[in-house]
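Predict the 3D structure for this chain.
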Amino acid sequence: MRSTKQIISCVIIFVAGFLSGVFFAAWKLDSKPAAGVVNPAPPVNQKSSEEIQNRIAGIERMLKQNPQNLEALIQLGNDYFDTGDHDKAVEAYQRALVIAPRNPDVITDMGISYRRLKKPEQSAEAFRKAIEIDPNHVIALFNLGIVLRDDVKDYPGAIEAWELFVQKAGDSPHAVMVKPWLKALKEKTGNEEKPK
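Done. Predicted structure below.
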């Protein structure tokens, strides 16, 4: 039986990784920042990469003992994402979704990994599923707009996703960032808002 300290350590590691993954997910998807915008994601340094690899090895050992550990599967997916191994990230997220099929955060993270694997249709499908489960999931709306604009070239779909995103995200930094993208896309497609 595990000691209380081991359980608390696992929970703290998971919560910290999960929260940072959720907040970072929207930023890490857009690999083409707007002109003048610096990509806020610094490269993973060697030490943190080694730490992630050690954590992955520990989680894999834990999953051999308990393959139904949802938190461990989600953290494993996030860690594989952070190392750039998106095939393994998708696999871990899929295993987590067998246990919790209606988790919009995991579905969104899987959609981001699909985009990195150059599978935009699967990426868009994942974001749509996350939005179907949680219509207020702003990270999925943000990312759906990016995939539809940049990869699928479905400009009306991107406009629709980003309009919903801006409506739901309010004055968040991401909404401020998306507004000029939305305006430019509307101008490009001849779908500008008419003055009232």
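The CA atoms of residues 55 and 143 lie 27 Å apart.
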